[in-house]
């Protein structure tokens, strides 16, 4: 009997480096308003979508967020936050390009200082979702991001002012950046003795919870300061099991979770909606923090709730909920020393 020849061993193919799952979901985001409406079983003509508005500020929404929208409901509160409408093209007096005075408060490229002791970094212009009410929808991100020179100017501006003890990461959305890029910044900030706190403002854990991955959590655990993590949810329906899991992971990594919502007509301008948001966010481990009146940037007037109605809603909310569930009703006014309570 002739023995069988041994099988020749084939070399293993080199391992393929797969991008993080959240980055793939980022790339798969919907960008076509008509495709979004078709996915939800809605008629584009009846929706009043605007190609001009979409050209000015393109639609972008992760499919994970779309999955939480109600099919067949043109008034779904999540859909209303992302769908470009004809209303955006109306010119309304009092609504301008820089509603909150970012330009006047610039101290370096992508570095804004409005309030004592705090400095805000425009980390990037990228976002996972384009919210139609965004107060920075006209911001000149091409010239004004703190990360573009390796954070040098931003870190130098912070180091030069010993009165700065809190650094805020904003954007765009800072978690749009790779975790390694964020670590470059915090490694540099760690050498500045007067920095005592880090605050992160991000909507990604809400709209794309897969962003809260192992590298991000390891980075958070490595930071030498307390971290306040401000998520941005406007409606209770934005929470689901995946978001809850992301919130648990962030808390376990040591972050204090706060929610900052915007009062939006047709989205959350009822006491029932606001109460549900507070209760649902708290159930996920997120403390209600601010309820913002709309920043009056061009293209968002159709979302505005007048101050009298806002105060009435807030009063009714305070009568319904425990005090720790009632966010502060505030407005940002350029030149003020802090957010102004209404």
TrEMBL record:
Family: Belongs to the radical SAM superfamily. KamA family.
Protein name, UniProt field: L-lysine 2,3-aminomutase
InterPro entries cross-referenced by the UniProt entry: Aldolase_TIM, EpmB, Lys_aminomutase/Glu_NH3_mut, rSAM, rSAM_sf
Keywords for the protein's UniProt record, in alphabetical order: 4Fe-4S, Iron, Iron-sulfur, Isomerase, Metal-binding, Pyridoxal phosphate, S-adenosyl-L-methionine
Compositionally biased intervals (Low complexity): 1-10
Domain Radical SAM core: 112-336
Gene3D superfamilies, per the entry: Aldolase class I (3.20.20.70)
Catalytic activity: L-lysine = D-beta-lysine
TM ranges: none
Positions contributing to [4Fe-4S] cluster binding: 127, 131, 134
Cofactor dependence: pyridoxal 5'-phosphate; [4Fe-4S] cluster
Recorded name of the encoding gene: epmB
SUPFAM superfamilies the UniProt entry points to: Radical SAM enzymes
PROSITE patterns, per database record: RADICAL_SAM (PS51918)
GO molecular function: 4 iron, 4 sulfur cluster binding; isomerase activity; metal ion binding
Region called Disordered, residue ranges: 1-21
N6-(pyridoxal phosphate)lysine PTM positions: 339
């Amino acid at each position: 009997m002739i023995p069988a020849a041994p099988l020749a061993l084939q070399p293993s193919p080199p391992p393929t480096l797969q991008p993080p799952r959240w980055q793939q979901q980022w790339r798969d985001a919907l960008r076509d308003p008509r495709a979004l409406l078709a996915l939800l079983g809605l008629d584009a003509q009846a929706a009043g979508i605007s190609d001009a508005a979409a050209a000015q500020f393109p639609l972008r929404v992760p499919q994970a967020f779309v999955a939480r929208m109600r099919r067949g409901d043109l008034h779904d509160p999540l859909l209303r936050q992302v769908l470009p409408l004809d209303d955006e093209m109306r010119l309304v007096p009092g609504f301008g390009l820089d509603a909150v005075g970012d330009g006047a408060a610039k101290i370096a490229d992508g570095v804004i200082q409005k309030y004592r002791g705090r400095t805000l970094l425009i980390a990037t212009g990228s976002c996972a979702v384009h919210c139609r009410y965004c107060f920075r929808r006209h911001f000149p991100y091409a010239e004004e991001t703190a990360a573009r020179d390796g954070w040098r100017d931003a870190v130098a501006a912070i180091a030069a002012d010993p009165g700065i003890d809190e650094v805020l990461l904003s954007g765009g959305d800072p978690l749009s950046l790779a975790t390694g890029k964020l670590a470059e910044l915090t490694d540099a900030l760690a050498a500045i003795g007067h920095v005592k706190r880090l605050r992160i403002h991000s909507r990604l854990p809400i709209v794309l919870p897969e962003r809260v991955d192992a590298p991000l959590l390891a980075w958070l655990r490595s930071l030498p300061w307390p971290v306040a993590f401000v998520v941005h949810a406007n409606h209770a329906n934005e929470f689901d099991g995946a978001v809850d899991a992301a919130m648990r992971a962030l808390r376990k990594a040591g972050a204090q979770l706060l929610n900052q919502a915007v009062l939006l007509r047709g989205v959350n301008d009822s006491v029932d909606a606001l109460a549900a948001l507070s209760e649902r966010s708290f159930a996920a481990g997120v403390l209600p923090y601010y309820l913002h009146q709309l920043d009056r940037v061009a293209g968002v007037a159709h979302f505005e709730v007048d101050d009298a109605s806002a105060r009435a809603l807030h009063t009714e909310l305070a009568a319904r909920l425990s005090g720790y569930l009632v966010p502060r009703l505030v407005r940002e006014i350029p030149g003020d020393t802090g957010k102004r309570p209404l």
